[in-house]
Every structure is written in structure tokens, then in C-alpha cells.
Write a structure and sequence with these properties.
Elements lengths: L3 H24 L4 H9 L18 H14 L1 H20 L4 H14 L3 E4 L17 E5 L2 E5 L2 E4 L7 E9 L4 E9 L7 E2 L13 E3 L1
Parallel strand pairs: 1-5
Antiparallel strand pairs: 2-3, 4-8, 5-6, 7-8
Length: about 210
């Protein structure tokens, strides 16, 4: 069942976002004000489980909201999709450590923190194709050290959390693991490389 309250809110925001959408795309600027509005209206918690204070909306409502927001600004809708799908997917798959998921869920609800997966690399494309990333994680006495470069990091100018896919090499094998990085982590650099017509405002830059 679709929640009509959220639909009405999305329709209002879509009109608001449309006012600056062309300007943001033309100038390649990030729509910080759009995400502030989404935060104020509770949209950043839509798919967060209720046990963490989220709304846990249905898939149908989720899709309809994004469809409406995209009529106002496709780049903003894309960014919100990337953020919300993590919580919706994890509710079903439970692939991340529970302490991770609780942390990013509470941060999304209480502070409006944004999160996205960071997996794609130049020359590799999506890891779903079966390739191993060149980004490597090395265990040290101080913790894990991650070296590599990722592309298509949507919402890079505003993300609080980056879920980075990296390769761990062992003597006879290699395997994949996800690492939760924060914006403040030492050595994390955002390279502003993104310049894709129609989606410039998504801020899908590279990270190193």
C-alpha cells in the first residue's frame, strides 16, 4: 500500500527542487539545499527499520517517491536512491555486521547522515560482473589499510559514510570484503572528476 502522506510531501519537494535543477547541472554544483530539505522532512529515514527509529516504508511507496522526486531533479533522486537502498536491502539480506547497520541507521535517523556503497573502479565496472577490484585492504598492527581508487561515488560532497569494497590477498587466494569508512578517516580524498550531462549535480566523483 502506498502512503499518500509521503507522496504529497514528495510532490511538494519535486516542485521545489525543479527550480534549481537546470542551474546545478549547468554549473556542476551539488544541491546541498535539496538534501537539507529531505533531511528536514524525514526522507533520509524512509527505509530505515522501525527498531532504529526509521519509517520502514514499503517498496511500492519507496519507488513511487523516487519517481516523483526525479521529475523535479533526477540527480537528487538518484542520490536518495543510493542512500535508501542500503537500508531497504539490508533489512532483507543482513549482509553487514549488526553494529555497522545500527550505527548508520541511527545516524541517518538522528543526524541525517548519508551513506553509499563504493565499489566501482575504472576498467572494472561493477564488481557484479565477477572481476576482482584493484583496491586492496592490508592488515597492519594499527588496523586495516586500504589502497585504491573508486569511481561513481554518488553524493561524494555530502556523504558521511562510505562502504568500500576491497580485495584481501592471502597466500593462496583472494577474497572480497566491505569496509565502513567515514568522511573524517585519514587518507580519504575526494577527486572532483564527475562531469556527466544531466547528472552533474549527483556529485558522483572519484575517491582515493
Amino acid at each position: 500500500m502506498v502512503s499518500e502522506d509521503w507522496i504529497r510531501k514528495a510532490q511538494t519537494l519535486a516542485i521545489q527542487f525543479s527550480g534549481n535543477a537546470a542551474k546545478h547541472d549547468r554549473e556542476g554544483t551539488f544541491p546541498f539545499e535539496n538534501f537539507e530539505a529531505l533531511k528536514e522532512q524525514g526522507f533520509l529515514s524512509l527505509t530505515v527499520p522501525k527498531i532504529y527509529g526509521g519509517y520502514e516504508i514499503s517498496l511500492l511507496t519507496y519507488v513511487r517517491i523516487l519517481e516523483i522526486l526525479a521529475t523535479g531533479d533526477g540527480a537528487t533522486a538518484l542520490g536518495l536512491t543510493m542512500h535508501l537502498k542500503i537500508f531497504g536491502s539490508e533489512r532483507e539480506a543482513k549482509s553487514y555486521p549488526e553494529k555497522w547497520f545500527e550505527k548508520i541507521s541511527l545516524k541517518a535517523v538522528n543526524e541525517g547522515s548519508l551513506v553509499n556503497t563504493v565499489a566501482t573502479e575504472e576498467g572494472l565496472g561493477s564488481p557484479a560482473g565477477g572481476g576482482l577490484p584493484s583496491t586492496v585492504a592490508i592488515s597492519t598492527p594499527q588496523g586495516w589499510r586500504i589502497n585504491g581508487k573508486k569511481t561513481f561515488t554518488t553524493m561524494a560532497p555530502l556523504l558521511s559514510y562510505f562502504i568500500v569494497l576491497a580485495r584481501i590477498d592471502e597466500e593462496n587466494d583472494s577474497y572480497l570484503a566491505n569496509f565502513l569508512l567515514t568522511r573524517e578517516d585519514k587518507g580519504l580524498i575526494i577527486e572532483e572528476t564527475w562531469n556527466s550531462l544531466g547528472m552533474r549535480a549527483s556529485g558522483s566523483h572519484d575517491i582515493v
